[in-house]
Amino acid sequence: MPVGVSLEEMKHGRETLNELAVQAGRDPRSIQVVAFFAPPDPAALQAFEDAGADAALIALETAGEQEALAKLEEMAQTVLPSRGRGV
User: Fold this and answer.
1) Contact 31, 17 (CB under 8 A)
2) Domain around 65
C-alpha cells in the first residue's frame, strides 16, 4: 500500500517484496500492491503498473452528488479505454 513514494521506490519495494515472498514459499503475485491517490491519467496509471502496482485507487474530490457523478463519468471516459476496458 504505497502512499507518497516515488515510482522508483515502488519498483524497488515490489522487487524486495517478491524476493521475500519467494523466500517464504509464497507466490509473489499473491500479494497485491495498490497505489493510493493516483491521478486519473492513463500514462500515470501505466507508470504505476510498470513499477509493480497491481491496482491504483483514484481520489475523487467533489462537493456534491451531481458533481461526483460527472467527474466519475469523465474519469471513466479518460481511463477505461486506455486500460483495454470499455466504458
Assistant:
1) yes
2) 7-83
